[in-house]
């Protein structure tokens, strides 16, 4: 195995060590390709499936947070802005939590000698560092959304809205 990514794996004349197939695997392909089904136990260990699930959840919830942010900026009333900011913070915290679980799992198991061949030369790459940076930024943005929601609540308490009545009490 030359390299393994979240949804793609690359081989260069790889042969399954447990089964002597007449086929060598060469090139980069999608991890769920039909030809790779015979070696799925090698390329998809349980910890890597967990990493895929949690990082996919993190990505999907981050996309949902982006949609909520666009809704907040375009069509939210000031009264609903506080609730929307809290919801946005909750979504981002959940996305960051899922990303944290996936990064910790991959950091603990991805560098082991039992998964990738030639394990002494396998190192966590820059993409792993970018994943940590992205999750850290998700936590920061979630905290900033909570701070902004709190400021909006204080602002609403300082300046209560005046309600005007449409009903008239006297004659003209």
From TrEMBL:
Main location (coarse class): membrane
InterPro entries on file: PMP22/EMP/MP20/Claudin (IPR004031)
UniProt GO BP: regulation of tube size, open tracheal system; septate junction assembly
Membrane topology term: Multi-pass membrane protein
A GO term from the CC aspect: membrane
Key words of the record: Membrane, Transmembrane, Transmembrane helix
The protein's name in its UniProt record: Uncharacterized protein
Localization terms from the record: Membrane
Keyword check for Membrane: yes
Transmembrane segments: 50-72, 84-106, 126-147
The keyword ATP-binding is annotated on this UniProt entry: no
Alphabetical list of Pfam families matching this protein: Claudin_2
């Amino acid at each position: 195995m030359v390299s393994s990514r979240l949804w793609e794996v690359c081989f260069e004349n790889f042969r399954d060590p447990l089964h002597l197939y007449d086929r060598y695997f060469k090139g980069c392909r999608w991890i769920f390709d039909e030809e790779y089904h015979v070696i799925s136990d090698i390329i998809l260990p349980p910890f890597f499936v967990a990493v895929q699930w949690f990082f996919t959840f993190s990505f999907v919830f981050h996309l949902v947070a982006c949609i909520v942010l666009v809704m907040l900026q375009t069509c939210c009333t000031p009264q609903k802005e506080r609730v929307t900011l809290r919801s946005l913070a909750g979504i981002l915290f959940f996305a960051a939590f899922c990303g944290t679980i996936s990064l910790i799992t991959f950091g603990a198991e991805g560098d082991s000698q039992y998964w990738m061949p030639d394990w002494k030369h396998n190192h966590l790459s820059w993409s792993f560092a970018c994943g940590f940076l992205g999750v850290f930024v998700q936590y920061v943005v979630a905290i900033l959304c909570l701070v902004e929601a709190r400021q909006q609540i204080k602002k609403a308490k300082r300046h209560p809205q005046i309600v005007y009545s449409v009903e008239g009490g006297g004659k003209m």
